[in-house]
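Batch manifest, entry 17 of 40.
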Amino acid sequence: MTVLAAGTDILADMTGAPSTDLSALLAADGAGAEAAVPSTVRRFASGVGMAGLRFPRLLTEPSPSPSPEPSSESEAEDDDSMPELFCPGPIRDDPALGEEVNERLVDWAEEIGIYEGRLDKLRACNFGRLIMLTHPATDDPDRLLAATKCVVAEWAADDYYVDEVSLGADPKVVGSRLAKLHAIVDPAPLPARYAPQLDAYRDAEPIATAFRTAMEHLARYTTASQLGRFQHQMSILYVAWNQEADWHANGRTPPVWEYLVQRHLNSYLPPMILIDVLAGYELPSVEFFDPRVRRAFTMAGDANVLLNDLHSGAAESENDFNLPRVIAAEEKCTPREAIKRTVEIHNELMHKFVEEAGALSVVGSPMLRRFFADTWAWLGGSREWHATTARYHQ
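Output type: structure tokens
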């Protein structure tokens, strides 16, 4: 079995998948469960009026139980079992809706000029299906299209500026390209003498046009605060792409810890940040930016982007990076062993997300509980797309 086939099988095997209903992972009676709740969350829930609070008991362990030590070195070498992926499947799969969004997306891409000559490949990636799967709270194709445009603008910037040399990616100019692009995402008010030059760049550069038109579409459905969250998350993503460009420019393979820092910045939060937008509500800022909520949400984004790492290797050049490749380089292990370790890291993050999101759901607002449930749904839809998209599967 090839490394890619191993990754594909992990994502496609739903036999051990947890329930798509996040609340089903939590027991109704939380008596005696306080020990499982992070101390930071318990402190958040202390104070006047909180004496009767009970935290949910997790039906799953917060993190995978450690495997018993093998009795001999040969037994350790024979242990080739792959852990099951702790991630739900999709709540909703509506192929017709996904296809409608996808066709509208390809028409938009042709109009603004991204992926010129590669529209058939773009269509086969089926990003419309990705957004249909990850946002089951709405069946409005226009609302779904707004998010799909943002996702494809992000992917195009990554392809053209960071990853694909054949498309013009060059690590020496990543920083300047992203700085100019961010002046479109978070519009820069230049003095009158120079503003026309920025306007000319905005209209002439297809990636800039993609972001401008995508955000104009998105703004129909966001509040000012929600649009600001998206802009903030994009600035974080650009920092991560600059870090990756540094590795390419200097021919350096990062240690695993540094790669995980980059993946924390370059996670799936940019598309996930639109969860409440597409569902038609707004998680209040006091909860959205609470450090405990942010920690849980970012763990979900960090974990889910590792699904991408399980597949992207086959589509990347030898000097590109993904977690299995970085683990194999650092630990001098086989590719299969590196994939196994990647799954274990993913599962650790996912178990912690369930643990902390469950505890925060008890002390937070009903809207926070919905937000975490919608996040869980996003993770399951992303898993299904990664297991089926032609971007990674021929």
